[in-house]
Specification:
Elements lengths: L11 E10 L2 E10 L5 E7 L7 H12 L3 E5 L12 H8 L4 H17 L3 E10 L1 H12 L3 E7 L15 E2 L8 H4 L2 H4 L1
Parallel strand pairs: 3-4, 3-5, 5-6, 6-7
Antiparallel strand pairs: 1-2, 2-4
Length: 185
C-alpha cells in the first residue's frame, strides 16, 4: 500500500513517542503541523492489525488538516505490533478489554494536557478501532467528538454516558455489527 503522506514530509513534525498508560507507557505515532501554534488533538485508533504504516499515514493526514494526531499501538504491552498481520490479529484477541480501553483513554488525556494542545480532543478509529472509539466516548468525558468508522457500539446501558458529538459510519450489510445500531441511535 502506498502512503499518501510520507514520514519525512517537510510540513510536519513526526516522531514515535510513548505516553503514560494504565499498565505502563504506550508507544504511539505522533504527528503535527510544524510550528508552535496550539492545536486540537485527534487520537487515531487502528484496525485489528495494530499500528501499521497505513494508520500512521492516516495520523499524518489528520495532522496536515491542523491537528496534533496520536496513533497508539494497542499491542505495546505484548511487544508491539508485529509485521505479520495474522500474528497481530491473534495478539489483539489476547488484549484485556478494560486495560486496553484505559490505555486509549490515556491517549486522550495525553493530548488534552499536551503543551501545544488547545485541550480539545477528538477520536476516530477503524473497524476494531471504531468499536474502541465508541468505548472511549463512553469512558472519557474529555472527548469532544468521536468518529467511528465501523465497529461495535457501546452496551445499551453505557450509551447515556456518551457526551461527545458523534459521526458514525457503518457497512450496509453486516447484520452482526448493525444489530446494535437502533439502540445506539
Amino acid at each position: 500500500m502506498s502512503l499518501l503522506v510520507k514520514r519525512d514530509d517537510p510540513r510536519l513534525e513526526v516522531e514515535d513517542i510513548t505516553y503514560p498508560g494504565e499498565a505502563g507507557d504506550v508507544k504511539a505515532h505522533y504527528a503535527r503541523p510544524k510550528g508552535d501554534e496550539k492545536l486540537p488533538g485527534v487520537v487515531v485508533i487502528p484496525e485489528i492489525w495494530g499500528l501499521i504504516p497505513h494508520i500512521e499515514d492516516i495520523a499524518r493526514r489528520v495532522a496536515l488538516e491542523g491537528y496534533i494526531a496520536v496513533a497508539p499501538d494497542p499491542l505495546t504491552h505484548l511487544g508491539g505490533t508485529p509485521e505479520d498481520p495474522d500474528e497481530a490479529v491473534k495478539m489483539m484477541r489476547e488484549l484485556d478489554p478494560e486495560e486496553t480501553t484505559k490505555n486509549l483513554v490515556a491517549a486522550v488525556k495525553y493530548l488534552k494536557t499536551h503543551p501545544q494542545s488547545t485541550g480539545k480532543v477528538g477520536v476516530t478509529g477503524f473497524c476494531w478501532g471504531g468499536g474502541m472509539t465508541a468505548q472511549i466516548a463512553v469512558h472519557s468525558p474529555d472527548v469532544q467528538a468521536a468518529v467511528p468508522f465501523y465497529g461495535r457500539q457501546p452496551a445499551p446501558e453505557d450509551i447515556p454516558k456518551v457526551k461527545a458529538s458523534l459521526l458514525v459510519h457503518y457497512a450496509g450489510e453486516d447484520e452482526r455489527i448493525n444489530a446494535g445500531i437502533p439502540e445506539f441511535e
